[in-house]
Design goal:
The complex is a heterodimer of chains A (170) and B (263). With 170 residues, chain A is mainly beta. In chain A, a hairpin with a 3-residue loop joins strand 6 and strand 7. The radius of gyration of chain A is 17 Å and the shape is globular. Chain A starts with 30 loop residues before the first strand and ends in a 6-residue tail after the last strand. The N terminus of chain A is likely disordered. Chain B is mainly beta. Helices cover 11% and strands 41% of the residues of chain B. In chain B, strand 13 and strand 14 form a beta hairpin. The N terminus and C terminus of chain B are likely disordered. Classes of the chains: A mainly beta (170), B mainly beta (263). Chains A and B meet through strand 9, strand 10 and strand 11 of A and strand 2, strand 3, strand 4 and strand 5 of B.
Chain lengths: 170, 263
Amino acid sequence: MIGLVGQPVLLRNASCPGPYGTSVGDLPWDSVAYLSSSRVVFSSFSSASGAVLTSFDAAGALAEFHSFEPGRPQVVSMEIAGVFPGSNNILIAATDTKNGKEPYVFNPTSGTMALIADLSPGCPGSLGDLFTLQSMASSRLLFPASTPSSGTEMFTSDGTTATLLAELGT
Amino acid sequence: MKPFSQLTFTSSNHFVRHSAPGVRDSLPELGCSGPNFAVFFATDSRGVVTVFVSNGTSVVAPVADSTFVAFSERGATCSGDGRAFVIGATVSQGDEIFVLSGSYPSVTATVLDYGQADLGSGIANTKLAPNGELVFYGTANVSLGYVSGLFVTNGLSQTPILLIDQSSAVVSDYFFINSSSMLLSYTQPCGNETKSDLYIARGSLSSGPCTPLFSSELCRFLSFSRPPRVCISPSNIEQPVRRFFGPSLLPTFHRRQKSAFCR
């Protein structure tokens, strides 16, 4: 998958439900990102761990985010939306029970995830079917989002904040 | 719960609109991006679909004629390698090909042979060739009618020229080795199945050396390039290929050879 030499390494047993497994018959991942630092990130879901982001490198070193762990937002789904240029941090379209579907940033090395901005408070959130465009020059991602004041417009983010790019429709 | 009047399902990108009454959405659509700027499509203040370019912190509309900036409908396709982009879009006169070039924010847009080079769909995998011209996948109305294939253009106001006819085979990807040779991943029918091989296309196929690079399949194209030759369309291939590869370097693709691959 990422140029591994030798025997494949089992990361998860998809037929063994549990804290680190997916249910029988589930796809092992929902969306995948390949990073330039020989690291792969994928999202999955299990009844025990909830929405999970898994990051691993060629040596098999894992960094994971489990949404069902105490003190974390109750994320029910996570979609890998894009990679921030230059940093390898990942834009996640995550749906949680409080904010709806909003932009989060996932650090594939530390396994931490944080809300970038609650652009549209409450449900259903600001994000629809998401696509992203990379802006290499500014190390930013562009993505469409909808807010009560702007409507559906293009937003820009560097992974720490998200702002309206421009009011193109008015 | 918001009242029903504020909930609108848009057909273009499935956003659940919850903007305040009176707020107009631009509904951005996927474009393409490169090192210098990103390209996307959105509805502007006039209510027409327009192309925009952004460096991530600001956004501008490219310098172009009025026919370019006002697409008549959504669904434009865009592809580029960061230095130049090719767009297929529907304007009032039909489906056309446009080229974006320049550096942000001085981006210019050019329409190719407006009104004649009607484009069907599927602009993809645009790459800037070593000689500065643009190569891209698409479907265009050339003299043979609508043809899907690999086209080349210099980005000026002229008809994009068919480089490789993909009506019976598909170049799934291609790479420029240098100004006179390309590496092709070529998928073609083979009985009831398809087969994909790597080929090298270079000038003077009949006398050029056969140099296996990554696969012995690379030699096949050259070994089958001996006469008799049945060119797909000499009028549409020889001229652009000469222009693209130079007058003495003439790669050609032959229907008879394609069938021979499936033996």
